[in-house]
Amino acid sequence: MEKILIVSDLHGNGPALAAVLGAEPDATRILCLGDLVNYGPDPGECLRWARTAIAPGDIVIGNYDHLALGIDQTVPPGFPEVHPEVLHHTRSRLTPADREYLKSIPLVSQFGVGGQRWQIVHALPSDPVWGLLHPEARPQRWALEVALAGFPEVLLLGHTHRPFVIERGGAVIVNPGSVGRPKDGDPRASYAIWENGQFFLKRVEYRVEETVAGLARVFRGALLDELAGFLRKGGREVFDDEMAA
Questions:
Q1: Number of Cβ atoms within 10 Å of the Cβ of 143
Q2: CA geometry: angle at 192 spanning 37 and 122, to 5°?
Q3: Does residue 239 carry a pLDDT above 60?
Q4: How would CATH label the architecture of 3-107+175-244?
Q5: Domain ranges of the chain
Q6: Contacting residues for 225 by C-beta, under 8 A, at least 6 apart
Q7: Which of 47, 46, 43, 35 is nearest to 90 (CA)?
Q8: What global pTM score does this model have?
Q9: Tell me, what's the pLDDT at 125?
Q10: Distance of alpha carbon 238 from its chain centroid, rounded?
Q11: Strands 29-32 and 3-7
Q12: What's the pLDDT score for residue 241?
């Protein structure tokens, strides 16, 4: 029986990724919805894992992966600018093989699972890199995204770091949340499982202080405090600010 592990927004957090993989050792397939790097101390570790564990077509590229490559330096209004030190750290850890791998990852992928058509994308079909839509958005807005995707039965996306499962426009839309940088006030790593035709949202505790120690080997002062506080609190304050905007 197939069991699919769905992850997104790892953000270079090796301990969080290890905890998710340890919680689901019997997964037969892994889908990754992008943002392997930036913010966390372990971008290379996350990339090496993706290269060996994820089949081509089962992963899409995210906005912070783009920024790490220097493909697009323009951050749309409403999104926080990436701190230069964070971006420099990530780029300094990317090997030539890492860069080639990131360049090979598509924006969108589509395939069949259990007789259904699935599409995976980091953000939205209308804007695979930066598009942002929360589950409370009007059903018509979600239906438009489903139409732009070609009416798949399942649409998987990440980017918001907020886990949810909703049905809109004839599709099941699933966001597994963030493995490495949750924003919903729960610091545990977030992911999704598909098994027996159903989706399940799951959380697992990981060694947050191990990730913080990794950050402390790279960053100092206010930036370290900001990054560490975000992980310890599950980004609650930032999430509230985004939802109020």
A1: 15
A2: 45
A3: no
A4: 4-Layer Sandwich (3.60)
A5: 3-107+175-244
A6: none
A7: 43
A8: 0.94
A9: 98
A10: 17
A11: parallel
A12: 41
